[in-house]
User: Which sequence fits this backbone?
């Protein structure tokens, strides 16, 4: 069975500058789909190019909280324009990140809410990033009721997981699940209903064991899904089938008109 990575940065990250074409060729053989997430509008055209060139590549367009300063009056229209491409399947990645800086928290919140409302309005799911900011993220999702999406690389415990799930969100899990000390998110993973779990890498970051510390790749979801299966008492096949179905349902993968 081919695999789906619901969150990566292979098309746009410098980490693949030297061998991107080779990597893409190898991925094409193993991956049913990968969703390439933008960080800012600088990435949109590259992503549109890649979804046109590779059948298995899908994209998300949005402005990441760390790029909040790049937001301007024309950005929403630009996002809408790219969303009219049927292979640009989500608004992302968007959210809040208070870990690196929070002096611009008000701006981050404004942009996050505006993009969530845009996602709701265009009936596209949102791919949400949260670091040291989960309470505010959940509050803003609550303000955009009806918006669908995933809180990617979910890193909080069961309580926050319950709140996110109650708001209709999926939870994305990646390589951290394979670490010896995954932290609170293990409770969230065990708690989440099987039909709300997404498999992801966040490549080039957060490689699963046995590649921890090295450059990640979408096909390394293989190691994370094995761990998921073990933890939830399922076969590798079943776990992969479930996470593939979840990604297809949330992002309507395969429904696009080519
Ligand atoms: Zn990411």
Assistant:
């Amino acid at each position: 069975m081919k695999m789906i990575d619901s969150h990566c940065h292979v098309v746009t990250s410098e980490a693949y500058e030297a061998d991107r074409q080779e990597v893409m060729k190898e991925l094409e053989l193993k991956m049913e789909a990968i969703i390439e997430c933008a960080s800012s509008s600088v990435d949109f055209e590259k992503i549109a190019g890649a979804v046109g060139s590779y059948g298995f590549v899908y994209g998300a367009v949005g402005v990441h909280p760390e790029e909040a300063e790049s937001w301007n009056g024309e950005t929403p229209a630009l996002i809408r324009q790219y969303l009219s491409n049927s292979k640009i399947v989500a608004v992302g990645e968007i959210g809040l990140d208070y870990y690196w800086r929070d002096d611009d928290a008000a701006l981050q919140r404004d942009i996050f809410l505006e993009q969530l409302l845009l996602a709701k309005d265009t009936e596209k799911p949102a791919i949400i990033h949260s670091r040291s900011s989960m309470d505010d993220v959940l509050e803003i999702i609550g303000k955009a009721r009806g918006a669908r999406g995933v809180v990617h690389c979910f890193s909080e415990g069961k309580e926050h997981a319950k709140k996110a799930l109650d708001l209709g969100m999926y939870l994305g899990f990646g390589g951290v699940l394979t670490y010896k000390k995954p932290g609170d998110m293990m409770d969230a993973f065990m708690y989440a209903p099987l039909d709300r779990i997404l498999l992801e890498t966040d490549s080039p970051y957060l490689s699963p064991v046995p590649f921890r510390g090295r450059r990640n790749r979408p096909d390394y979801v293989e190691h994370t899904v094995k761990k998921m299966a073990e933890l939830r008492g399922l076969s590798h096949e079943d776990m992969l089938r479930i996470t593939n179905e979840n990604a297809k349902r949330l992002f309507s993968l395969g429904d696009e008109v080519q």
Observations:
- The longest strand covers residues 88-97.
